[in-house]
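Lecture 7 notes: from sequence to structure.

We start with a single chain of 108 residues. Read the sequence below before looking at the structure.
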Amino acid sequence: VGPHVCEKHASGARPFSRVLVAPDELNIDSVTELQAKVEKRAILLRQDVDRLSQQKCQIVRRQTEEALNLDVEAAMQRHAGGVRIQGEKAVNAVFEALRFARPEHERA
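Now the structure, written as C-alpha cells:
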C-alpha cells in the first residue's frame, strides 16, 4: 500500500503543505484513542441533544398552556357579558311579574 497524504499546517508562505506519511508510521494506539474520544464525545452530544429536546418540550408545553389560558379567559370575558345581561333580564322579568301579581294578590 502506498503512502497516505495528510495536510499539515506549515509556518511557511503557504498556509498548508502536503506531508507524506507511510502506513507503518501510523500509530494504531493513537487511532484507537482518538476513536474512543470521538465515541465519548458523540455520547455527550447525544445527551446534550436529548436534554435540549426535553427543555424545548417543556417550553412548548408551557407556552401552549399560557396561550390556552389566555383563550379561556377571553372566552369567559366574552360570555360573562352575555350571562350578566341574561341575569338582568331574568331579574327584571321577576320584578315585572311581581308588579302585576301584587295588585291581584291584594284584591284577593
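Confidence is low (pLDDT under 50) at residues 1-16. Keep this in mind for problem set 3.
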